[in-house]
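Late entry, N-hydroxy-L-asparagine complex.
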Amino acid sequence: MNLFTIIGVLVYYPAVSFASALPLVLNTWSEDFTGATRTAFDVISQATGRGGRLDALEQGLNFCELHQCGGSVGFGGHSDASGEVTLDAMVMDGVTHDVGGVGGLRRVKRAVSVARGVLEHTNHSLLVGEAATRFAIDFLGFEEESLSTPESVEEQAAWVAGGCQPNYYRAFDHCTSSCPPYVLQAPGTRESGTGQQMERWGRVGREEHRPRYSPYVEEGSRQQQQPSNHDTIGMVVVDQEGELACGVTTNGLGHKVPGRVGDSPVPGAGCYVERGVGGCACTGDGDVMMRFSPSARAVMGMEAGMAPQEAAEAVVGSIARYYPDFRGGVVCADAGGGVGAAAWNLRLSFSTQSPATEGVQVYSVTPLGGKRGRAGDVARVS
Ligand code: SD4
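Prediction complete; structure with ligand written out below:
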């Protein structure tokens, strides 16, 4: 029994069995994020149909966008390397399989409402950057507002004062010691990672495979030291008829390279629903996670007969086989209201509301990763 296993046994939580009843709202994270759960549930308990599902998602996710849940959703919070806050969001309806999304949205606060506008008023699935902003303002009538706050400006100033470290640039001269802009390293001097990283990656057993080191891991380790660490909100709504919809909204990763769009607005990555089967949503290192279409794969797992818990664990495990240091999690619900969640190197929490329980229920997920806990444990917190 190694040290991690011993620690795992010590923090073992008995697995929770979920009482399923519809309608159900399931979303990532807890604390202020539960306001989104409650808001969405209030809507979906009074409504059915596509309008009801999308209203529940939109109003629930708007709650977090406007309350800046965890500092990682909505305006303020994480800015990119140039100091600008941009937003990624999507909505997907399980009945029609319609999707609307925005990536790198600038100067508009309610990104998920713009995503719904893309779904309802275009034949496209994803609009990005300044053009998405123009669509929101010129076609949908959204107000143009700065997404910066004194806190986000201060946080950016501290990062710049610290030499812009860590950052997401690689193989540029001085990118590990000073601020952008950078000059490409001369050919022949490019490195994919430090010797120590390469040694660790070697343990994956795929010599040809050199996963990219992500500062998200470093940033995440710092956050894990704090009592409340949060991330993107991803939500799955199952209405009284068992019909599904999902949505995600985030300001993405702090100090991301300008122009970077994460996993959140990508269908099958940020979230995914399949009629008659279930839906999943993801949080974590989107640059890694989007390479695996994790939400779609977990839903496909459920379609093949897995319980939501089993499907969530399977997909998280698949990512970890390639990227043992990745940090992320997935929450899943089936069309009957069954729930599951799994995380890797991340103290994930999530919340649910349904008629089966009194008010919002909060759960914590013991990471499947070797660092803490025992595979698959989900404990009710409140
Ligand atoms: C992203 N998945 O943009 C998101 C990160 C996250 O707040 O969960 N952050 O990669």
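The chain has one domain: 3-148+224-365. Will revisit in the morning.
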